Every structure is written in C-alpha cells, then in structure tokens.
Amino acid sequence: MIDKNYIYKVINNAKNPSLEDVDQVIEKARKRIKLTHHEIAILLNAKDKQHLDMIYDVAGELKQEIYGERVVIFAPLYISNYCINNCKYCGYRRDNKFHRKKLTFEEIKGQAKLLEQLGHKRLALEVGEHPKETPIDYVVKAIQTIYDHSSIRRINVNIAATTVAEYKKLKDVGIGTYILFQETYDRDAFFYQHPSSVKGDYDYHFHAFDRAFEAGIDDVGAGVLFGLADWKFEVMALIMHNEYLEDKYGVGFHTISVPRLKKAEGMSLEDYPHMVSDEEFKRLVTILRLSVPYVGMILSTREPISMRSELIDHGISQVSAGSKTDVGGYHDEFHEHEPNQFELADERSVLEVNKALINKGHIPSYCTACYRNGRTGDRFMRLAKSGKIGLICEPNALMTLTEYVLDYGDPELIHSGIQFIKDHAENIKDTKVKEKLNTNIARIIAGERDLFF
Ligand code: SAM
Ligand code: SF4
Predict the structure, then answer these.
(1) CA distance 264 to 198
(2) Domain containing residue 214: CATH number
C-alpha cells in the first residue's frame, strides 16, 4: 500500500516545479477537485514565497467555505500510563522507570466531572498499551462510566492497534472516532522507533483501520508523529492511506492529527534529524487541507498559541483546550501531577482559549449532533460534500456555544459572547434556519439544554 520507492519517485519527479504547474494545481485544489499524486508532489516541492502564500490563502479559503468560523473543542483524558511498548519518543515507554498509574472507575468519574465543569462535551481517551493492566474491558468500562456519570457526549478513543473482536466492543459502547496514529509511514523509521515491542509490527499497525471497519466502526482518525521521518514522504503516505480506505470501504479518514514531536522524558530531540520547522509545518498542514478538503484536521496543545491561532485560519478544524497529558491530570492545583507523556506548549485554560477564538471571530463548537444522529462515516462525508453542512453545523455550533457561555463563562464572556452569538445568528442566510436558531437560542437562555438540528 505504502510503497516508499514509488512515493520518492513521485516526489522527485516533481522537483523544481514551474510557476505555471504550481498555479494550475492550486487552482484545481481551489475547485475541490481531487489532486493526483504528481500534483500533490508539485505542492510539496513548491518553495517560491509567492506560491507558499497562495497555498496558505487557498487553504484558508477552503477552511472558510467548508467549516465557516467553527472550531471544534475537545480535551484529552489520560487514564493509564502503563505500557508494554518501548516507543523511543514517548515518555510512557516501558524503559522509563517511574511509578505507573491507572485510574479507578471512581477516579474516572471524578475526571469526567472536572472536565464537565470546564465545559467540555467531547473527549479523546488516551491509554498506553497493556493487556494485563488495561485490557479492553477496562477501557470499555471507563467509557461507559464517563457516559453514565457526566454530560460528556462524545468519547473518541486513542488506543493501540487491536483485534476485530476488541474493536467491536468499542463500537458497542458507542465511541466517537477511533484514533490511531501510524506515527511514521516509513517502514525503516517505524521499525527503528518501536524496538522489540508489540507496536513494532508495521503491517498490523497499518491495517488497524481495516479491522476497525470490519468491526463496524466507520469513523477513524489518522495521524503522523511529525519529526520521525521526512515530512513530504509522510504527507503523501497519509493521503495514500486515506485513498486506500476510500477505495476499499467508501469512506476515508474522518480526521487527521498532525502532532509534532516534543521533548519527553528519556529522549533527546537532537536524535531526530527530521524535526519539522515552523515553516515546513505550515506547509504540510495547508497542503493537507488542499489535498483532503473534507477531512477534519486536529491540532493539539503540543503547539504554541501563535501556531494554533495561525493554523486555525488555514486549515485546522479541531483543537484541544486546557489539556493535561498526565494520568488524572484534571484535579486541583494541590494534587501532585503524574509524569507527562510529553511537554505542552499551550497551557491556557479552556476559558482563555475560547475567549481568544471569539475575539478573532471564530465560533468554538461543542456540537456532537452528527454522532448522536448517526451521521457518521460516509453519511457525514456526503453531508460535508453537499455543502449543506454549514446549515446544520453553524446553528449547532452557535447553540452549543450559547450553552457554554451561559454555564461556564465569566461575566465578561457572558456579556460579549451572547452578543457575538446573536450577531452570527443574524448573518445566517436561510430564513427558516435563522428563525429556528433564534428560537432555540432564546430557549437556551431561558434554561433549556441539549437542543440541536
Ligand atoms: N498508546 C497508544 C498508541 O501509542 O497508539 C495511544 C496513544 S498515545 C497515548 C498518543 C500519541 O502520543 C501517540 O500515538 C504518539 O504519536 C504521541 N506521542 C508520543 N510521544 C510523543 C512526543 N514525545 N511528542 C509528541 N507526541 C508524542
Ligand atoms: Fe506506549 Fe503509546 Fe507511548 Fe508507545 S506512544 S510507549 S504505545 S503510550
């Protein structure tokens, strides 16, 4: 599926593209026509400042056209740092000796409550791989506990590649997206980074989404840990992995995450010659937006405020906020923290993130309606491609933001936020949708909750 020689041949054949070539590809992407591998390679090789600016601009246009001002907000929840693997880049790898911890179900309930108090409705559950300490039944019970005891409405799950039978259990408990990062699509780098461990089986890892689809999960999220291998190769491979799933199952990735390697305990960034610079990072995010315009793109708090703020305008559609990456990290300041998986760069609170987004005209969204209405997999993609998504998602974003502002905002946000929401509602063109939205906003202000289109 991922043929390294083929990918490098395609990339090398498009070296030093002419200005006309780059122009043509950008124009094609602007019209949302699927790009060929050669055309993607042209974008990857574009270096000219004028063209990089055009790629940024068109990525921004596509983001605006498809997602409007919405930015989906979520938080990761780490429930265990036990791990049998030895990923060289990760603070949780088994050679790092520290007191391991997994949360009890009572503690998980407590974390869910704390996340709820921050206004979150959507989580990414993070677990190290350890069949004895955290078997699938532990993960499933953790998910059920959160759904049963909090107003968290969607739990995406980031656990190690596993079997069809175990994916079926995740499907049955009602997960949102199943997220798994390939880490690197470069087979040699993958092998080197995952020595003597279960995770070191490249093909088993690569085909995890096939098994997830077989188990009935139709919402999967991919990612590359940028910094392990050549970023141009990784971008092409990600796109090819997406094409492979589209061809085989009729639906590709729901989301792509773009984590960049960060300093972690027991590793040195100096050992990683493929670290991605800020400029390269912006190129790769925007080229992905041009290549897979309908795939959601996720940016975490590994990135600093300035990068997050810039890339939301040029392709990113989901961000984590107020994140803790230690097990049970959402407790008060008097608790001692467990070791982190890696260092964070944006430590603002959820409230601060939301205020900054609103100040820039973005709509933080807590909507989970598609998932709850069964609009997943190809049903979601059909909606996204039809262009009607704005008529459903924007009102839902505004309604969930109204809930957030009223329930978790400070006086300043309540004052400015409600006006911001009303102004956006006024701009909705479809009069029926506008009318219903205004009625719903009034109902939420009067105390009703959980309304959606
Ligand atoms: N243990 C599961 C796995 O590896 O698939 C679950 C996910 S792990 C908790 C989340 C992700 O963190 C990994 O897939 C990896 O890409 C990322 N990660 C690990 N070490 C990192 C580092 N030093 N910097 C940035 N991201 C890192
Ligand atoms: Fe374990 Fe995941 Fe870290 Fe690898 S990345 S050591 S599998 S927690």
Answers:
(1) 21
(2) 3.20.20.70
